[in-house]
Amino acid sequence: MNRQTSQRGTLQGQSDIYSGGTHPDTLPKYLMNNVQNYPGDITMRKKDLGIWNCYTWKECFDVIKHFALGLTSLGLKSGDKIIIIGDNDPQWYWSELAVQCMGGVVVGVYIDSMPDEIRYLAENSRSVFAIAKDQEQVDKFLSPYKDREGNNHRPIKEELPGIRSLIYWDDKGLWDYDDPWLIKYEDVTRLGEQFEKKHPDEFIASVARGKKEDTAVLCYTSGTTGIPKGVIVSHDYLINNAISSSYTRQLYPYEEYLSFIAPAWIAEQAGIAGWVVNLTRINFPESPDTVMNDLREIGAAFLMFGPPQWEGLLKLFQVRVNDSSWLKRTVYNLCIPVGYKVADEKMKLKHPSLFWQVLYSVCNLICFRPMRDYLGLSHLKIGITAGALLGPEPLRWYRAIGVRLSQIYGLSEANPITLPLMGTPVKPETVGPISVGSQIRITTEQEIWVKSPGQFTGYYNKPEATAEKLVNGWVRTGDGGAIEGEDGQLVFYDRLQDMLSLKDGTKYSPTYISNAMKFSPYIKDCIAVGGEDKDFIFGIVVIDFDSVGRWAEKNRIAYTTLADLSQKKDVYDLIEPDIRRVNRMLPEAARIRRYLILYKEFDADEGELTRTRKVKRSFIEQRYSDLLNAAYAGLDSVEAHARVKYRDGTEREISTTVNIRSVA
Amino acid sequence: MTTSDIKLSVKDVTLRFGGVNALHEVTCDIRENEILAVIGPNGAGKTCLLNCISGFYRPQKGDIIYDGVRLNNIPSYKIAQMGIGRVFQGIQLFLGLNTLDNLMAARHMHMKHNFWEDMIYFGRARREEIQHRKRVEEIIDFLEMENIRKMTVGSLPYGKRKLVDLGRALALEPKLLLLDEPMAGMNLEEKEDVARFIIDIFERWKIPIVLVEHDMDVVMDITDRLIVLDFGRKIAEGTPAEIKTNQKVIEAYLGVAEEHQGE
To answer: How far is it, in rounded angstroms, from Cα A576 to Cα A416?
Structure first.
């Protein structure tokens, strides 16, 4: 309990795994190794026409070699950039490796990008070829378009004559296109086969020329803060990333991986590196709509999804439960509280008592294991959410049914920064322990600075932006955070620019505080009140009536309504440890100093919540300004009058005494 | 235009139900390489025309000639075997079967093995099954129905069922495709998808398509030629541009004709 948060200072993970042994220094050299050592091993699967088609290293290598030589015969030179846009398909992986084999650089584009975004990336990177999946993407290059300001443009093809050809791999709907600028994927490999007959050594020579500091990929930033910048990702970066993941996740060769997140993103680039470096077996779903079905057929050992996919899987299951038979529903409803109970204990890093452990194994047997099987998660060693923070509710649910789900932290500029080590518990308020070989520094402004074996070397053609981001080898993340506990887990608050500050300038993140509070089963909502006119942070807590009510009954505490229950001393005592738990994650000056428990729940009918149950902060701060004034004035209780709107439309005034407490 | 261009020709077809003239001396041709739309107000006889072609109704007068064969007295299942595929206005699927089985059932016509071969499921029966499954999977891929492959059709939303129905018609490997309101009851996005599928079908299999549809925007967009029916009579025929400016068509749709009749 007395563990100190080192709010500032440096932290370093062990780093000997990178230097131990000699390994190839580029991804193409890894590929050559694999095809020499394991030519017949199945390394990739793609579901097509309802059948999983398998590809061995030899088969992949042949396509890659011929495609690479095909590009060469079309005029690709070392250092040239090639833009790729499409779904996760073997062709993307093959194209990327092929380009890298010839010393080229891949520029990935998100599949839903608009033509003006594609144009910007192609122009900025000076791409000489484009590779696109299908008619939808090809049309983006061939049709006139409007940019965001509404100006009309000629087709990208005409605007950027630097793009010599557009290569596509899915010809559906393109049968009648007769533009010679378009080339079919297979035609390029055929060119490569002919080229190989004339220059049989070209490919091997080109791969041998590759160096570890060569650029492998340009990963463009999302452009939420200004125009997108091309992050230079070297072979060294990707290889170190893959080594670090395989070490922490203890992956064996040919463990199943589902390729689903966008390959334009650094997280999936790590997947591509994992394919050749860690020999992960890549499985491509039939279409983006069939992922949930394909997932079960694959039985992935390692999964990386964004929060929407994890939430989607959860919702899908809850809908199915409601549609299922009475018996199944009952079993689920009996078991899931046991799962929550044990998951909550484990998240507090406590061992559940023997009674709960036994009960949990029974539930696991009759409910959770079949559930995991149904969801296709039974072989899952570790599930990771990346991109954004997953809310407390889904995270608790997955842990309850026995799925190891963790958050990781990383950026395009340096990745991965944190990775959960197999077997070590991760506190739900943190994004996990620091990855092997990385270093983290928290500045006085609470900014996270990182140094990692997988780290960018600069922004493409933007020295000023690079100088701003890269200081003495440290990457400034622009995110606020802290390091927690002896084992050094990283706490991620928010983007620095989204954090608010108090009177003395201390920054704090209302989103982080309220999310971290909600990991308690007793707390439904929590708002951290602060701002530049306030001295300290004040918490408005809304208790979960069901769970606190049940707790009260068990502890023989008599109550009538929520208003009554919420103001009991015992309930304040129940909630306070959670506030202290969250406070431990926060810097001294930005902790919740005082709090109250509200006599009601936030209600969408009264405008306190949006219909999607998002809390409207400013509205609530205004509505309860009486309470807040009293709290900041140092009072211990305040008389509250409120008009409550009932479901039938009637309004009634209630008055109650609200207690305000200081956190000990 | 030479006669060899014509896939199917309808000559002076008249269809009466008691005293009602559902079709009155309708004449039209469907050419080898076109998407032809049949439009008209409610009750104009559009579906009746398709029913005459596919053999559900027997016209009292006139001829329907398909590839040089007179269809008038040929039973509808034989007409289907001759290569006229059809998507119905109301969905005609096995609701208890999944998408895949519905499409496989449509392949029945192309299966050559007999009952006894099916019993032992060896040799030809098995070979054919695999072959047909491949064809069906290509259609599933074509219509992007992978995610509903194993779902019972009864549990699918309306728009998806329409798509399965289209897939079922394609599984017959038609040489002429009749589509009766394939987009009815769909939202804009679904309509756009189906419109794209229709064009893709036309480009990929190079088969003539007859389309009955109410959505004029779609019809004008994707068809080469239209014929317009009103109260069982053909009142116009031509390209979309011609039809748009045709006075008779405007009157039929906007109801101006009644005032003229009153004079």
So the answer is: 35
- A57-87 pLDDT, tens digit each: 999 999 999 999 999 999 999 999 999 999 9
Are A74 and A145 found together in one domain? yes
At residue B210, the pLDDT reads: 93
> A484 with A504, same domain?
no
Position A219 in a domain: yes
Domain match, A182 and A206 both: yes
Q: What is the CATH number of the domain that holds A120?
A: 3.40.50.12780
Does residue A208 have a pLDDT over 80? yes
Q: Which residues contact A442 (CB under 8 A, 6 or more apart)?
A: A7, A8, A9, A448, A449, A481, A482, A483
d(CA A407, CA A512): 14
d(CA A356, CA A242): 38
B149 touches chain A (CB under 8 A): yes
Q: How far is CA A167 from the centre of its chain?
A: 31
Instruction: Check whether A93 has a pLDDT greater than 70.
Output: yes
**What CATH number does domain B3-97+159-262 carry, 3.30.70.100, 3.30.450.40, 3.40.50.300, 3.40.50.2000?**
3.40.50.300
> What is the distance in angstroms between the CA of the first residue and the CA of the last residue of chain B?
41
For strands A165-168 and A81-85, give the pairing: unpaired
pLDDT (tens digit, 9 = 90+) per residue, A182-192?
Answer: 999 999 999 99
Are residues A186 and A124 part of one domain? yes
Residues A482 and A530 in one domain: no
Q: Cα–Cα distances in Å, from B37 out to B82, B234, B238?
A: 22, 13, 10
The residue ranges of every structural domain in chain B are 3-97+159-262
> How far B84 CA sits from the closest chain A CA (Å)?
24
Q: Which domain holds residue A30?
A: 26-284
**A50, A173, A176 member nearest B149 (Cβ):** A50
Reported as a pLDDT band with limits 50, 70 and 90, residue A6 is: very low
Residue numbers in A near B141 (CB within 8 A): 48-49
What residues in chain A have their Cβ under 8 A from chain B's Cβ atoms? 48-51, 172-173, 175-176, 286-287, 289-290, 293
CATH number at residue A615: 3.30.300.30
Residue A8 lies in a domain: no
State the pLDDT at residue B207. Answer: 92
Q: A579 and A488: one domain?
A: no
| Coil/strand/helix, residue A169 | coil
pLDDT tens track for A515-569: 888 888 888 889 998 888 888 999 999 998 888 988 898 888 988 888 889 999 9
Disruptive mutation site among A46, A47, A49, A87 for chain B (greatest number of B CBs within 10 Å): A49
Q: Is A33 helix (H, G, I), strand (E, B) or coil?
A: helix
Please give the pLDDT value at position B175.
92
Rounded to whole angstroms, the Cα distance separating B55 from B7 reads: 16
> What band does A248 get if pLDDT is binned at 50, 70 and 90?
confident
Contacts of A49 in chain B (CB under 8 A): 134, 137-138, 140-141
**Angular region, A163: left φ>0, alpha ψ -120 to 50, beta rest:** beta
Tokens, residue A19: 């230097």
Contact A48 B196 (CB under 8 A): no
Kindly state whether residues A166 and A252 are assigned to the same domain: yes
Q: What is the pLDDT of residues A290-323, one digit of tens each?
A: 888 888 899 888 888 888 888 888 888 888 888 8
Domain count, chain A: 3
Residue B262's pLDDT band, with cuts at 50, 70 and 90, is very low
Whole-model pTM: value is 0.83
DSSP state of B12: E
Residues A620 and A485 occupy one common structural domain: no
pLDDT of B137: 94
- The average pLDDT across A576-603 equals 89
B138–A contact, CB cutoff 8 A: yes
